[in-house]
Design goal:
The protein has 127 residues and is of the alpha+beta class. It contains 3 helices and 4 strands. Strands 1-2-3-4 form a 4-stranded antiparallel sheet. One of its GO terms (biological process) is chemotaxis.
């Protein structure tokens, strides 16, 4: 009798598991429906999160390669020259990636950069 009882108990447990699985399947199908309905709202929310992420902008005036000995000799008034001409455009980087070119402008007592060209990949993102 104990074997028969164990078998019946096992069948009861198996039936309960199956009924739970059926409930889960129904819930999952309802979740899928609600997910697809909320997808446009969710996309908008994700865009807001992405658009609010900070970006480090770096403007490169030029570069120079010097020896450590020359670096250690720097003092107030020291000068070194960059690899770019006065009229060459500045490189504009976003998080280390080149995104545009620009030129220096002055506004009252501050410097600014006027964008003169943007990489094509940024133009397609903007649209």
């Amino acid at each position: 009798m104990s074997k028969l009882k164990k078998k019946n108990d096992f069948e009861k447990i198996e039936n309960s598991i199956n009924s739970i699985d059926n409930i889960d399947d129904k819930n999952n199908s309802q979740e899928n429906i609600s997910i697809s309905a909320d997808s446009s709202e969710e996309t908008t929310c994700k865009k807001k999160i992405i658009f609010d992420a900070p970006v480090n902008i770096t403007i490169e005036l030029g570069r120079s390669k010097i020896k450590i000995k020359e670096l250690l000799d720097f003092s107030k008034g020291s000068m070194f020259f960059l690899d770019r001409n006065k009229n060459d455009p500045l490189k504009i980087f976003a998080n280390g990636k080149l995104i545009a070119l620009g030129e220096i402008v002055m506004s009252e007592n501050t410097y600014g950069v006027k964008i003169i060209s943007i990489k094509n990949s940024l133009n397609t993102i903007n649209e």
